TrEMBL record:
<dbReference type="InterPro" id="IPR013752">
    <property type="entry name" value="KPA_reductase"/>
</dbReference>
<dbReference type="InterPro" id="IPR036291">
    <property type="entry name" value="NAD(P)-bd_dom_sf"/>
</dbReference>
<keyword id="KW-0560">Oxidoreductase</keyword>
<comment type="function">
    <text>Catalyzes the NADPH-dependent reduction of ketopantoate into pantoic acid.</text>
</comment>
<dbReference type="InterPro" id="IPR013328">
    <property type="entry name" value="6PGD_dom2"/>
</dbReference>
<dbReference type="GO" id="GO:0008677">
    <property type="term" value="F:2-dehydropantoate 2-reductase activity"/>
</dbReference>
<dbReference type="Pfam" id="PF02558">
    <property type="entry name" value="ApbA"/>
</dbReference>
<feature type="domain" description="Ketopantoate reductase C-terminal">
    <location>
        <begin position="175"/>
        <end position="290"/>
    </location>
</feature>
<dbReference type="InterPro" id="IPR008927">
    <property type="entry name" value="6-PGluconate_DH-like_C_sf"/>
</dbReference>
<protein>
    <recommendedName>
        <fullName>2-dehydropantoate 2-reductase</fullName>
        <ecNumber>1.1.1.169</ecNumber>
    </recommendedName>
</protein>
<dbReference type="Pfam" id="PF08546">
    <property type="entry name" value="ApbA_C"/>
</dbReference>
<feature type="domain" description="Ketopantoate reductase N-terminal">
    <location>
        <begin position="6"/>
        <end position="148"/>
    </location>
</feature>
<dbReference type="InterPro" id="IPR003710">
    <property type="entry name" value="ApbA"/>
</dbReference>
<dbReference type="InterPro" id="IPR013332">
    <property type="entry name" value="KPR_N"/>
</dbReference>
<comment type="pathway">
    <text>Cofactor biosynthesis; (R)-pantothenate biosynthesis; (R)-pantoate from 3-methyl-2-oxobutanoate: step 2/2.</text>
</comment>
<dbReference type="InterPro" id="IPR050838">
    <property type="entry name" value="Ketopantoate_reductase"/>
</dbReference>
<keyword id="KW-0566">Pantothenate biosynthesis</keyword>
Length: 308
């Protein structure tokens, strides 16, 4: 039986563990101890309890675990490299990694530094935690798997089949870089604003929020064009990106974005992974990004306020 290690027991990590555990050997790994008995609430409101093999990083070194077929890194983007370093000594350097981070920060760095295959996943599965023993599966959506250089299509196909068997709608793709940038563009227009104002996604449709979304998308659309990234539907244009963002806002109106969850929990946000690559690209291509810079500064100020 193929073993899956899941490094990072946050919302996505626990949803992944609940989904894979009935059919595969799963080990959920975190920095602190979790209850082995974990609860999942489905999008339909049903609750189920499942025993998960949950270990700390320290316990992993002394526990007798099967060599993992895949290590899924489901931490926040800024913690991914450090998390991998903590377990690198107990896994073969050829172990396939799967990166589930938002943004475009950890993916190129780990791809360049890890000897084994590195797959990237982008998903619209929605989930959030309600405590140390429960995750809510807030909504279903497609998951795409691939690697940045399209060197491991067979491995991506195999993982997509396993995830689909576990209840994810997963597909292997050869353009994961494009899809990661597309999601980055959408996240940049939604996540920082809902986190700053502590509102659900749907509130962005109203009043002054909508004008701010338009202003952010205008900058993002120009950056996407410079990077050669097209929206999933339609040709490259500011209007196409704006239509896409508003469609996502509509589809996720009641969702609580991951960055908002971070703010509510008084944790550092993923602003560097989401806004950072866009601001760097704007600088390279000599494009304006005043709105993106303002969002980054405002989030940094908010994080500083609740960290002090």
């Amino acid at each position: 039986m193929i073993s899956h290690w899941i490094l990072g027991p946050g919302a996505v990590g626990r949803l992944l563990a609940h989904s894979l555990a009935p059919q595969f050997a799963v080990t959920l790994i975190g920095r602190r101890a979790l209850l082995n008995e974990q609860r999942l609430t489905t999008p339909e409101g049903k609750r189920r309890v499942q025993r998960l093999n949950a270990l700390t990083v320290n316990q992993l070194a002394s526990a007798s675990q099967p060599v993992p077929g895949f290590v899924h890194i489901t931490t926040k983007a800024m913690a991914a490299e450090a998390a991998l370093e903590r377990i690198a000594s107990v896994i073969p350097s050829t172990t396939p990694l799967v990166l589930w981070q938002n943004g475009f920060l950890a993916q190129p760095r780990i791809t360049d530094s890890w000897l084994g295959p590195v797959l990237c996943a982008t998903t619209t599965q929605g989930a959030y935690l309600t405590g140390d023993d429960e995750v809510v599966h807030a909504g279903r959506g497609p998951t795409f798997i691939g690697d940045l250089h399209n060197r491991h299509p067979a491995l991506a196909e195999a993982l997509a089949a396993m995830l689909s068997q576990a209840g994810f709608t997963a597909s292997a793709v050869g353009d994961i870089r494009q899809r990661l940038w597309q999601k980055l563009a959408i996240n940049a227009a939604i996540n920082p604003l809902v986190a700053l104002h502590e509102v659900h996604n749907g509130v962005l449709r109203h009043g002054a929020y909508s004008a701010r979304v338009d202003a952010v998308v205008k900058e993002v659309a120009a950056i996407m064009q410079a990077e050669g990234i097209q929206p999933p539907k339609g040709k490259q244009s500011e209007h196409a990106w704006l239509a896409l963002v508003w469609q996502v806002v509509e589809n996720t109106a009641n969702n609580k974005a991951s960055m908002l969850q971070d703010v509510e929990a008084r944790r550092p946000t993923e602003r560097s992974a989401i806004l950072g690559p866009l601001m760097e690209s704007a600088k390279r291509h000599q494009l304006p990004c005043e709105e993106l810079v303002a969002l980054d500064l405002a989030l940094a100020k908010k994080e500083t306020a609740y960290a002090s």
